[in-house]
Amino acid sequence: MEDDPVINQAVTDRLTAEGYVVAQAWDGPTAVAAHAEHAPDVLVLDVMLPGFDGLEVCRRVQATRPVPVLMLTARDDEADVLVGLGVGADDYLTKPFRMRELVARVGVLLRRVERAAELAAAPAAARPVLELGDLRVDVGARRTWRAGTEVRLTPTEFDLLVCLAADPGTVVTRERLLAEVWGWSDAAGTRTVDSHVKGLRAKVGADRVRTAHGVGYALEPGAAS
Prior knowledge:
By secondary structure, the protein is of the alpha+beta class.
């Protein structure tokens, strides 16, 4: 969903060439309608759209049928990024971007959807539930609670939480988080990790996610409520 016809068509052509089926939209209302009609596995969504912007599109589609969202933004301002993550976006790219990187990001989001479906289909005994103080994480159902209240996380935030929860109290490096959550083999996206951790911290509590400056993050075990 992109209002610039050149960028819209370029993204469409590249994703189509990669074997994806693509539905196009050029404004906010059309984007919401296309989501309802086609039920896509992932959205590539520009922030600046006529009608209403991409942030509002993200709010509306996530309220009806959650879907991974890759946001395209003209600014690399941290506040803008955090707003996008706060309304349900999973990842973002700053313009101008390389088509190769966009395709890679889409692929990561789709693999996450596949892994979630595999876990959901597994026997209940194979779907772990993590209890960390007053934080409860149902890995198979992809649901999280803090002190008995459900916390709505984006798919990326959930995978980030599960990665940190696998070894509570232990610092996980940004590079390892990039490899395990995003599937990236280099450290070029460490700012992406930082942005998502801020979103996760805002939802599960600043007391639960500890920063090891210059290294990475740890999930504090916490005390039972």
